[in-house]
């Protein structure tokens, strides 16, 4: 049969990418990609760019949903992974402690407030949220969990029960009991729930990923104060906002917060190996892992594997060495500066917002050509945003995303290694595309009808 060669296997099956997905993974997803024109054959990637099989270069404003903060195929992370394999370390001994998990935990704790004193490794963001729910309820001996409307915390059952988006939850009901929601930004509503003193934790995104909704002034500080008053754990979900995305290592630093629980994941891996973690206060950890009998009260077989730990250590080094967190702050300000004029330039642009390199543009019904806009939105709420995302991809080679279900919002979360020229080029392409979309030419009307038919 011969030696196994991944290179030979991939080269022998070139061009079958989407057909293989359709046959063995998800035919409906393949259908969506073909319908909206995103059915490219991808050849390679580096930094903030993707190349298709025809040699076209695309600017990645999607960033793998926030995985690639240090850039795609980052050389430092890749070298660390190869080196780890060559070291043949005795990882995942299970009944034993090895060096790499402890080193990564040390580096993570060095970057957090003193309140955070322990790390529980996981393999994903939703698993980190699940750990927060489980350990938080055990530590407080309370059952209820409060999260916010339109929040996204993951798609496994516990995380889904805290997910405030009906388009994700409705088909899977009944979900777990004991989960309730308050409006994001409403301290009075939160106070009314917490004053019952039966809430284990308040779970909140510092910036909501669906729509890129920023907190009102004083909201997060007030929420933390209410949690302290009523004995509720304050859990800040940094799965997408962490590791430099917002111009700080963690988004909670913008408001001087000291959470009890912080789920992290996505970009900690450098985009290579699944890795996540729950960062937690020493008090929470000791309330759960309170004896030798309870030493393994929670865990995940594959979570602290050595490849994941090596990827995490190399990623943190890259963020520091290349000053990517500071770059995110600087480039985020530039992106806002370049896109805010679009609000005045185009009647259909309602708002531009963001923090660091977490950015969004929101559309709304214009005073002129309102009939065309209403026609598109009646077919499918939020469809106008897809009329911008589509041509950005096909005509300008920019990969971006609509920010959420039924939202006329486009979101940008590019790798933090983007350049000023990349952002200038993106905004020029965005400007051109919005100008055309606002007029709704025949070609876009046809695309709208096609996209609205996606099921």
> How many β-strand runs?
15
- What does the overall shape look like? globular
Looking at CATH, the homologous superfamily of the largest domain is: Type I PLP-dependent aspartate aminotransferase-like (Major domain)
Enter the CATH topology name of the largest domain: Aspartate Aminotransferase, domain 2
- CATH architecture annotation name of the largest domain: 3-Layer(aba) Sandwich
The residue fraction in helices comes out at 40-55%
Radius of gyration: 23 Å
Please, could you describe this protein's structure?
The chain is α/β, with parallel strands linked by helices and 455 residues long. The protein has helices spanning 6-12, 17-24, 27-36, 63-66, 75-87, 99-109, 125-140, 157-161, 166-169, 187-194, 219-230, 282-288, 306-321, 324-339, 341-345, 370-379, 383-394, 420-439, 442-452; strands at 42-46, 49-52, 57-60, 116-122, 144-148, 179-182, 199-204, 233-236, 261-264, 276-281, 349-355, 358-363, 398-399, 401-402, 409-412. The strands form four sheets. The chain has a four-stranded mixed β-sheet. A hairpin with a 2-residue loop joins strand 1 (42-46) and strand 2. It is globular. The mean pLDDT is 93.
């Amino acid at each position: 049969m011969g030696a196994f060669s991944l290179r030979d296997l991939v080269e022998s099956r070139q061009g079958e990418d989407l057909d293989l997905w359709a046959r063995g993974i998800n035919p409906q997803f393949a259908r969506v990609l073909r319908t909206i024109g995103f059915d490219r054959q991808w050849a390679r990637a580096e930094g903030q760019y993707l190349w298709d099989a025809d040699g076209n270069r695309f600017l990645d404003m999607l960033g793998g949903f926030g995985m690639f903060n240090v850039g795609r195929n980052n050389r430092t992370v890749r070298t660390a992974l190869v080196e780890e394999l060559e070291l043949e370390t005795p990882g995942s001994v299970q009944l034993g402690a090895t060096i790499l998990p402890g080193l990564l935990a040390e580096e993570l704790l060095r970057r957090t407030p003193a309140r955070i004193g322990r790390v529980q490794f996981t393999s994903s963001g939703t698993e980190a949220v699940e750990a927060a729910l489980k350990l938080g309820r055990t530590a407080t001996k309370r059952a209820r969990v409060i999260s916010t409307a339109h929040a996204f915390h993951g798609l496994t059952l516990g995380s889904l029960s805290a997910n405030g988006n009906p388009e994700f939850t409705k088909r899977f009901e009944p979900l777990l009991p004991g989960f309730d929601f308050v409006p994001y930004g409403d301290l009075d509503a939160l106070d009314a729930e917490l004053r019952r003193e039966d809430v284990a934790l308040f779970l909140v995104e510092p910036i909501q990923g669906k729509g890129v909704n920023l907190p009102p002034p004083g909201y997060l500080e007030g929420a933390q104060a209410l949690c302290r008053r009523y004995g509720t754990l304050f859990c800040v979900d940094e799965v997408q906002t962490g590791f430099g995305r917002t111009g700080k290592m963690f988004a909670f630093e913008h408001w001087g917060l000291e959470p009890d629980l912080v789920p992290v994941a996505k970009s900690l891996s450098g985009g290579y190996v699944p890795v996540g973690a729950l960062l937690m206060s020493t008090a929470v950890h000791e309330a759960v892992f309170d004896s030798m009998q309870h030493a393994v009260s929670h865990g995940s077989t594959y979570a602290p594997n050595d490849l994941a730990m090596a990827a995490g250590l190399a990623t943190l080094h890259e963020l520091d060495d290349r000053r990517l967190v500071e770059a995110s702050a600087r480039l985020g300000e530039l992106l806002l500066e370049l896109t805010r004029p679009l609000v005045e330039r185009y009647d259909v642009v309602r708002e531009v917002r963001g923090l660091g390199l977490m950015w969004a543009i929101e559309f709304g019904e214009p005073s002129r050509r309102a009939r065309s806009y209403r026609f598109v939105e009646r077919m499918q709420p939020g469809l106008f945003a897809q009329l911008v995302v589509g041509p950005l991809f096909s005509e300008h080679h920019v990969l971006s995303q609509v920010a959420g279900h039924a939202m006329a919002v486009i979101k940008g979360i590019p790798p933090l290694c983007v350049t000023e020229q990349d952002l200038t080029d993106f905004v020029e392409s965005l400007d051109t595309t919005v100008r055309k979309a606002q007029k709704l030419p025949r070609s876009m009307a046809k695309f709208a009808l096609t996209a609205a038919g996606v099921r």
